[in-house]
Amino acid sequence: MNSNKVALITGASRGLGRAMAVSLAKRGNRIVVNYAHSGADAEVTAAECRAAGAEVLVVQADVCDPAAVKAMIETVERHFGPVEVVVNNATGPQPMLPLEDYTWAHFQDQLDFFVKAPVLLMHATLAPMKQARTGRVIMIGSEVVDLGNANFSAYVAAKGAMLGLTRAWATEFGPWNITVNLVAPGWIPVERHAGTSPHALAAYARGVPLGHMGVPADVGETVAFLASDEAKFITGQCLNVNGGNTF
After folding, report:
1. All domains in the chain, ordered by first residue
2. Residue 34 in contact with residue 90, Cβ under 8 Å?
3. pLDDT value at position 1?
4. The pTM is what?
5. Measured between alpha carbons, how far apart are the two ends of the chain, in Å?
């Protein structure tokens, strides 16, 4: 399952994004580590990818900003050539509030990360993929779309929209052999969950058919598979990585 694709992972400075970058690096891909704020964390990701034998480029960019996305892709193309794998992973704060306390700005923030950013990235990378008649686009969704978590409607709605993009683009880009899939993780603890109580973690794990929570590498390995040539006939799919928590 080794390849030598140029793989851009947004929000790759830590957490699930770092795991995706490392899994892709282990398979011989050239890795672009995108980050918005923490350059130090991004360099840790880069070091782990290099330790796996990969060539790595670290690029700071706000993926919700059109000019920043354009400049990032131009930098990647000068360094590595066209982007062949786009992993839309970047996210921001995820407030949990009853609807009465949400403002439209809360919804807009989520839509910017999960709809606007993928659109901007495709605008910047699609033409070379079409010319090469190949490409991989991987969205990082969430099981919340199936679960419909209360007090989380802004995030759930935006992740649902991301699934809609996946299906529409799979149909639209299929004639060019460009696959578009979505990986929907369950609750997999990363740095942002550092303050979560052991009771909450245990309660979630008890509801998972496999009886335990996942680890970031579970998501990373799934992303690496979908980016590979072995997954060339898989498109338009939502692949849940959550131990059977949803079907």
Report:
1. 6-241 (3.40.50.720)
2. yes
3. 62
4. 0.96
5. 27
